[in-house]
Design brief:
The chain has a six-stranded mixed beta sheet with strand order 6-7-8-3-9-10, with helices on both faces. A five-stranded antiparallel beta sheet has the order 13-12-11-14-20. A five-stranded antiparallel beta sheet has the order 15-19-16-17-18, with no helix packed on it. α2 runs parallel beside α4 and α3 crosses α4 (136-148). The chain is built from nine helices and 20 strands. By secondary structure, it is of the alpha+beta class.
């Protein structure tokens, strides 16, 4: 097993730069998730680690070895793709054996590795079937099995669950996480789904436009986002943003249609900055309906309901507060109607404040 280090890595296609100054260290045994919107460079970064894309600048190391010029087959990695990429004319056993045969693995060792992987993944009874006889989840297990039989130093996953239905995705992401923990192999997992990222990664690297925005543990990114992009991308339902300007010596945020007091803990950073454009941010769970008990200091703001989404034990309410949108959870009964107006409580102890110009936290 081995860690992976990227130092100053860049990727250009002609005059177009898709990744620039990419620095990331993945320690041995860690489950690292690269997450970001489509086109942010996460799959390109993974393909460079695998050797499927050439590096335009910087270095990539696996363990103590720089692998920029090492062919993919010699990097001791195994990759699981978005498509299952199984050979349709081969049985499951033959698919699992294929990479081992190329490496001229002795038959006895090959049988042992395949049987062991099949047992780990619970596909022992499927070894004689062909891919067309398998469900989507079973095919994904075979794709995983083909990777783990080789016992590589590093697993690379390129959105492996995107072709599965919602229920199966939840099941498979738990299985992948348990499998990686059991094997202790370094894993780098690419996804655009921030829920997958939050539930699977030991750490998460958030990417946007070819640059890393923040690297940290899931709760660190959720509670202390480094900029507005991370704050908006991490969390479901997404974070609420109220745009306004500082007033009253930096003690008040004046938005369109309402105002909020600046929390006491932030007033040192806002003091004397009247007129500064800011963005106040708060998670949906910290916007509380009046009938619920709020925690700590609160401020009330008026909202107008636009959509209500009943989920059984709660309702997700999408409303408008002045010119901004706000999302929050409320009790399932009564379900608010479109156009209903009432006040909600914003828990100020959990409010974050960003400078609108720099998009960085004010603290």
């Amino acid at each position: 097993m081995a860690g992976v280090t990227l130092e100053g890595v860049a990727k250009r296609f002609g005059d177009v730069s898709v990744i620039d100054g990419f620095d990331l260290e993945v320690p041995d045994g860690e489950f690292m998730v690269l997450v970001g919107p489509s086109g942010c460079g996460k799959s390109t970064a993974l393909r460079m680690i695998a050797g499927l894309e050439e590096v335009s600048g910087g270095t990539i190391s696996i363990g103590d070895r720089v692998v920029n010029d090492v062919p993919p087959k010699d990097r001791d990695i195994a990759m699981v793709f978005q498509s299952y990429a199984l050979y349709p004319h081969m049985t499951v056993r033959q698919n699992l054996e294929f990479g081992l045969k190329i490496r001229k693995t002795p038959r006895a060792e090959m049988d042992r590795l395949v049987d062991e992987a099949a047992q780990v993944l619970g596909i022992e009874k499927l070894l004689a079937r062909k891919p067309k006889e398998l469900s989507g989840g079973q095919r994904q297990r075979v794709a995983l099995g083909r990777a783990i039989v080789r016992k590589p130093s590093v697993f690379l996953f390129d959105e492996p669950l995107s072709n599965l239905d919602a229920k199966l995705r939840v099941q498979m992401r738990a299985e992948i996480k348990k499998l990686q923990a059991r094997l202790g192999t370094t894993a780098i997992y690419v996804t655009h789904d921030q829920i997958e990222a939050m539930t699977m990664g030991n750490r998460i690297a958030v990417l946007n436009e070819g640059k890393i925005q923040q690297v940290g543990a899931p709760l660190e990114l959720y509670e202390r986002p480094a900029n507005l992009f991370v704050a908006a991308f991490i969390g479901s339902p997404p974070m609420n943003f109220f745009r306004g300007t500082l007033s009253g010596g930096g003690a008040e945020i004046v938005a369109q249609g309402f105002s909020l007091p600046v929390p006491v803990r932030l007033r040192k950073a806002t003091a004397g900055r009247d007129g500064t454009a800011v963005v106040a941010a708060v998670r949906p769970e910290n916007v509380v309906q009046p009938s619920r008990t709020a925690r700590g200091e609160v401020a009330r703001i008026p909202v107008t309901v636009e959509i209500a989404e009943p989920l059984g034990d709660e309702v997700i309410v999408h409303a408008r507060a002045g010119e901004d949108f706000v999302v929050f959870r409320q009790d399932p009964r009564p379900i608010p109607a479109i156009g209903d107006r009432f006040e909600v409580q914003v828990e100020l102890d959990h409010l974050l404040l960003f400078d609108a110009a720099t998009q960085r936290p004010m603290e």
